[in-house]
Amino acid sequence: MATTPFSPATPVRSSLKPTQNPPRIFLSFRDSYGRPSRVNVYSWSSAASYVSLRDGAAKAGVVRAATIEEIEAEKSLIEKDVVSFFSVMADFCLVCGSKERMEKSIETVRTNFNSIRTGRSNPAMLDKIEVEYYGSPVSLKSIAQISTPDANSLLVQPYDKSSLKAIEKAIVSSDLGMTPNNDGDVIRLTLPQLTSERRKELSKVVAKQTEEGKVALRNIRRDALKAYEKLEKEKKLSEDNVKDLSTDLQKLIDEYMKKIDTLFKQKEKELLKV
């Protein structure tokens, strides 16, 4: 069967032209009762948007062909669905991006808390120490193994013994308040008992770091809201989209604020425990 493109001015009779000795065509459809039916089509004729099909001498049925307007309308609906899909995906990416930044903020607070010593030794207390190693600052834990022989001491065993002096210098320069004992092979650190005054000072430090974490979360919310407003102005998000995103964002912020409060209470409990 040869075909020609549809156009508003092109009648169906010129779009469907039987060829000589056309092959047998099978047409399946449902009748007015919904029952399936199948006929052999040998010839057809057309008028306007309707096609009459014949099975030999008998008339098999009439099929209505879609007009160009109907095809364009269907195409428009499909395009709208595609745009809607990508809009939803964009919303999803925006929320995920904010959540990823929130996770990093929580991890920063956790790392800062771990670096503040309490009554017991913990290798994480040395996480923030950087050592000048071959002209470049590197984290202590990347060039040495750190262990806790007992509850009141730390043992630092460098992978390269030539870095011992640099490690010792970095520990002395830190605010840990510990004096390293370098025996030429390893460095031992003994944790002095925390006084009540020192515990209170550290509690203030923890409270400050907690507030810094919350400020970071508020900044994430501010940046996300600005991004939503920009997309709304560019007609990439609707007003309802922005409202829904803002609501979801606030729920995330509240959730991560609670996580920071939980970390703070745990650390404060450790510091004040005698």
From TrEMBL:
> What Gene3D superfamilies does UniProt report for this protein, alphabetically?
3.30.1360.40, Ribosome-recycling factor
Q: Which GO terms describe its cellular component?
A: chloroplast
The chain's coiled-coil residues are 214-255
Q: Which UniProt keywords apply?
A: Chloroplast, Coiled coil, Plastid, Protein biosynthesis, Transit peptide
Signal peptide range in chain numbering: none
Q: Name one Pfam family in it.
A: RRF
GO annotation, biological process: plastid translation
Offer an example of a GO molecular function term for this protein.
ribosomal large subunit binding
State the source organism's domain of life.
Eukaryota
Q: Which residues form the Ribosome recycling factor domain?
A: 110-272
Q: What is the annotated localization of this protein?
A: Plastid, Chloroplast
- What function does the entry list? Responsible for the release of ribosomes from messenger RNA at the termination of chloroplastic protein biosynthesis.
Protein family (similarity comment): Belongs to the RRF family.
Name of protein:
Ribosome-recycling factor, chloroplastic
Can you name the source organism? Ficus carica (Common fig)
Recite the lineage of the species: Eukaryota, Viridiplantae, Streptophyta, Embryophyta, Tracheophyta
